[in-house]
Design a protein that fits this description.
Distance between the termini: 50 Å
Number of helices: 18
CATH superfamily of the largest domain: Endonuclease Chain A
CATH architecture of the largest domain: 2-Layer Sandwich
CATH class of the largest domain: Alpha Beta
Shape: globular
Structural class: alpha/beta
Strand content: 15-25%
Radius of gyration: 27 Å
CATH topology of the largest domain: Endonuclease, Chain A
Number of domains: 4
């Protein structure tokens, strides 16, 4: 594992692969219900697809740049790509072993038999043939290519294909239909449930050629393509239209990974590489089946409980008791913690604002909108009702561009002022500002969150949101919106942190403050909870703090380029990663401040992009009750003994050693939130 790091930092992409390995560990963890383990296989697969479409393609593009500039972006890209391939090959093998040696037998114990075409009974063969004739055959478009001719086949991005080689060197390429379910269920037999991939229905039926012809062996393949849109000039013309017009290019981008069935004969692999115009560097041996993300839709045909018990979102202790959300915020700042709290108060806030005659102005940033959304419907209604509504939509939110454009058009059609992406910078902040005017008195209500305005992800991601009518905070949030509508260039703020203007500077001051306390013999402590930690300057600063004696605890869910536990550099730094049923997404920053904690929440990870190249907002928490709540919740996570892994020097992903008591922090958090409903 020594190639993964030097004494200063881990490579970000190799560290990310270690994160995805933690996801794979959950698939193997027998403490998880069976269908949760299957879900983690789907998550692992989906994560890896995006990694190749985004990160690997980036590295390949960097490889083409002139060496002096290239060295500033990434050192030795070819070496990194080789190491990525080694790690992915290893993980794919582990993935296959988990699926075949653990998941399939475990399903069988539950009388769920996931069978392949060679295991079809005589009756099942007839059923499969009828399904093929009735539902699949007319959807197929079989392409044929001569193996020894200089011709090239195009394979769609992320689509599934079956390929076969005939005796006379004709390559057949068959796309598995995208509009049919991935799994086919046979009739139950004596309490046993039989399910197969649609791939196997096709393999069996396509082999049933007319008498006298050969029977072909089909193998599965899938290609991931570069997801970058490559807008040549973001500074001239209409950026929104350029993005919209570029989306189709994503489907034809350069191949970044070719997944093949490992059973494919070597001579066929060589022929296929030539027809697909790829090299062995692009090829990764997966399993017999690809697109395991389809297992998100793998139904449980039994009456047994094979998934986690549901944890329904809980009503907020104060917001649920007020008829008006505005009155609740006037009474006290309100802290929400999803998905333990319901997202309903945020929706109610917007719905109330849309109808309240005293609301005159609404401003909101949207990074990833839900496809169907009551919250977005309320924004539309507010505009239709004549409110002054300004919506900043980040169209460059990767893979959500089309949906964000759809909602932007809806808002515009209803009278909202919609501002789209800025050139060369993303707006990643999650902020809302509502202005009410009652008898000449103006009150602003601000909402600052760590997660998106998205009802669906609010049930899956752990995030914090703060509702406040604090005049100084709200006034500074207004300044951020003035930057977004280009009224001002720089927001002068003293309380909230705004990237790329003040976030890095202010966090640096806070860390240096802890170093000063440590140098004075007063200790010093820092606790940070983030998705990712990659920025070199902030990592160096944390090393300095560690050397000075500051005790640093990090909760990092994903990539972590910081190397803990190095004597004389980071021996005072502990790093833990938690992977569990919910995606840890919230960002919390706690600085000891000599016993008077300074606590912040916001949208910014400590990555260079979040500090320098995105508009992010981080807010201080002033309410002492909320500060205690955040400290308590972070402490629960730091004491996790079930789902926490130690990020050590070699990034081996070892679980935290077992203690006398088992603390699964997400379950413990749910109980904490439930207890504090009164």
């Amino acid at each position: 594992m020594a190639s993964l790091y030097n004494n200063k930092s881990y490579h970000r992409d190799l560290s990310w692969l270690r994160f995805n390995h933690r996801v794979l560990q959950e698939a193997s963890d027998t403490r998880n219900p069976l269908y949760e383990r299957i879900k983690f296989l789907a998550i692992f697969s989906s994560n890896l697809d995006e990694f190749f479409r985004v990160r690997v393609s980036d590295i390949r593009q960097i490889r083409k740049i002139e060496k002096p500039l290239r060295k500033r972006l990434i050192s030795k890209p070819n070496k990194v790509l080789k190491e990525i391939k080694v790690q992915v090959d290893r993980q794919q093998q582990e993935f296959g072993n988990i699926f075949s040696s653990e998941i399939i037998p475990a399903l069988k114990k539950e009388q769920i038999h996931l069978i392949n075409s060679s295991q079809f009974s005589t009756t099942q063969k007839l059923i499969a043939q009828n399904y093929f004739e009735d539902s699949l055959k007319e959807l197929l478009d079989i392409k044929r290519y001569e193996a020894n001719k200089n011709n090239t086949a195009f394979v769609k991005n992320e689509a599934l294909y079956l390929v076969a080689l005939t005796d006379n060197d004709i390559v057949q390429i068959v796309q598995i239909p995208e509009d049919v379910p991935r799994f086919f269920t046979f009739p139950e037999q004596n309490g046993k449930h039989y399910i197969t991939f649609v791939d196997d229905v096709l393999k069996y039926c396509l082999r049933q050629t007319p008498k006298g012809e050969e029977k072909l062996d089909f193998y599965s393949i899938k290609i991931s393509r570069d997801a970058e849109l490559y807008i040549e000039d973001e500074f001239s013309g209409n950026l929104k239209d350029k993005i919209a017009n570029s989306l189709s290019r994503r489907e034809t981008g350069q191949a970044t990974r070719v997944l093949i069935d490992p059973n494919m004969p070597l001579n066929f692999q060589k022929i296929l590489n030539n027809i697909l115009d790829v090299t062995n560097t692009d090829v990764i041996k997966g399993g017999t089946y690809h697109n395991f993300k389809d297992f998100f839709a793998f139904l449980n045909p039994t009456s047994k409980q094979l998934s986690n018990e549901n944890l329904p979102p809980l009503p907020h202790p104060m917001l649920a008791n007020y008829k008006s959300i505005f009155e609740a915020i006037d009474a006290k700042d309100q802290l929400l913690h999803y998905p333990y709290h319901s997202f309903e108060p945020v929706i109610r806030l917007m719905e109330e604002a849309a109808k309240d005659e005293h609301v005159v102005d609404i401003r909101i940033t949207i990074y990833r909108a839900a496809k169907e959304s009551r919250l977005n419907d309320a924004i539309r209604l507010a505009a239709a009702n004549g409110k002054r509504v300004t919506v900043f939509i980040e169209v460059k939110a990767r893979f959500d561009e089309r949906n964000n454009l759809k909602w932007g058009k809806i808002f515009e059609e209803n009278g909202a002022n919609v501002i789209y992406s800025y050139p060369d910078i993303k707006v990643h902040s999650k902020i809302l500002l509502i202005t009410r005017q009652v008898e000449g008195e103006r009150t602003r209500y601000a909402y600052i969150a760590t997660g998106n305005f998205n009802e669906k992800t609010a049930t899956l991601y752990t995030d914090f949101g703060l509702m406040t009518s604090n005049k100084k905070i709200a006034k500074e949030i207004k300044k951020v919106f003035l930057v977004l509508d280009r009224t001002i260039i720089i927001p002068k703020t003293k309380r909230i942190l705004v990237s790329p203007f003040t976030t890095r500077v202010h966090f640096t001051e806070l860390v240096n403050n802890e170093i000063a306390f440590a140098n004075q013999g007063n200790g010093g402590s820092i606790i940070l909870k983030m998705n990712s930690l990659q920025d070199k300057e902030m990592i160096k600063l944390l090393y300095r703090a560690s050397t000075a004696g500051v005790k640093i605890k990090l909760l990092i869910r994903g990539m972590c380029s910081l190397v803990p536990g190095i004597k004389g550099q980071s021996e005072n730094i502990e790093v833990v990663s938690i992977i569990d049923r919910f995606l840890e997404h919230g960002r919390v920053y706690i600085f000891g401040n000599n016993g008077d904690d300074k606590i912040y929440i916001g949208s910014a990870d400590w990555m260079t992009r979040n500090l320098n190249h995105r508009i992010e907002v981080v807010t201080p928490i002033y309410d002492e009750d909320h500060k205690k709540t955040i400290r308590d919740l972070v402490e629960i996570q730091l004491n996790d003994t079930v789902k926490a892994r130690i990020i050590d020097v070699a990034q081996t992903n070892k679980y935290v050693p077992k203690a006398d008591s088992n603390i699964q922090s997400q379950l413990a958090t749910y109980e904490y939130v439930k207890e504090h409903l009164t």
